[in-house]
Amino acid sequence: MKALVTGGAGFIGSHLVDLLVDRGAEVLVLDDLSTGSLDNLAGARRRGKVAVHVTDVRAPELATLAQRFEPDVMYHLAAQSKVSRSMEDPAGDADVNVLGTINVAEACRAAGARKLVAASSAAVYGNPKKLPVAERTAQHPESPYGVSKMVMEDYLRLYRSLHGLSYVLISPANVYGPRQDPGLEGGVVAIFARAMLEGRRPTIFGDGSATRDFVYVEDLVDAFVRAGDAGDGVRLNVGSGTETTVLELYEALASITGYPTRPEFAAPRRGDIARSVLAIDKARQVLGWEPWTSLEQGLAETVRWYR
């Protein structure tokens, strides 16, 4: 199989490339390296056939590159993923996430790929009243980032209707694991782990009662690969299905790292939601997927990598 991965040098994208290579695929990575790194792809490039082209997801050359490579499946993970940046620059967020997705969809059509698998976000649901959040939940995003992901889905649905584009959207919970950049938003596990290992006191925004659904990155990319062969015209939640408070996460990491100090607390940030946990029954049904990594196992592996 031939697979094209946008954002393939990033945290999630590089793990996806690893899995694709391990399953015998030839991979073309398109990444502007604004947040990704070629170091993330070193192992995959040693083990398999991986080419990298440094380009922006909005670049006109995307269609030409895809046509030359002739992928069977395109995986679209390139995005502006910071909620805070989207609040400061909503036009820039939409430029990357909406216009970039349209460019990818056009490239998919031009190349004749049989499937587009794209990354959505739990941010499309906003702050729902009923948990866990199922795919049928009304979308009321509370940040420009969430809006851009919602609009992205509207465009893919339209492309399916107008052009027969087969797609699956993967809506991840809070992803964590090796290679996550502590400087990127949403990476609370990376932020806490790095600070604790360096003897710095981490900060919790709010009182620590906010909840998140933490999914290990290797579990997530397994869902992406499965979506290359199953499902069409659907958005699938991928998470652990378990609600964990930020304070519980802090305490679990403190236990693993041996960090003895209580956290600092600061005011909640704009755009943050109070509670989040995803219903994952649909992913089980459509993909035959299950999360197999417990939070304790995943955190221990992540800390080992940061050490």
Q: Based on CA inertia axes, which overall geometry fits?
A: globular
Q: Describe the strand arrangement of the main beta sheet, using strand numbers.
A: 3-2-1-4-5-6-11
Largest sheet: 7 strands, parallel
Query: What would CATH call the architecture of the domain at 2-175 and 217-241 and 277-291?
Result: 3-Layer(aba) Sandwich
Question: How many beta-strand runs?
Answer: 13
Oligomer: single chain
Helix content: 40-55%
CATH H-tier superfamily of the domain at 2-175 and 217-241 and 277-291? NAD(P)-binding Rossmann-like Domain
CATH fold-level assignment of the domain at 2-175 and 217-241 and 277-291: Rossmann fold
SSE pattern: EHEHEHEHHEHEEHEEEHEEHEHH
Distance between the termini: 35 Å
- Give start-end ranges of low-pLDDT stretches: none
Q: Estimate the mean pLDDT confidence.
A: 95
Sheet-strand content, in percent, reads 15-25%
Secondary-structure class? alpha/beta
Gyration radius over CA: 19 Å
Number of helices: 11
The CATH class of the domain at 2-175 and 217-241 and 277-291, by name, is: Alpha Beta
Write structural notes for this entry:
With 307 residues, the chain is an alpha/beta fold. The chain has a domain at 2-175 and 217-241 and 277-291: NAD(P)-binding Rossmann-like Domain (Rossmann fold, 3-Layer(aba) Sandwich). The chain has helices at 11-22, 42-47, 62-69, 83-88, 90-111, 144-163, 188-197, 217-227, 246-257, 281-287, 295-306, and strands at residues 2-6, 26-31, 50-54, 73-76, 115-119, 167-172, 174-176, 203-205, 211-212, 214-216, 234-238, 244-245, 264-266. The strands form four sheets. The protein has a seven-stranded parallel sheet, sandwiched between helices. The radius of gyration is 19 Å and the shape is globular. The model has no long low-confidence stretch (mean pLDDT 95).
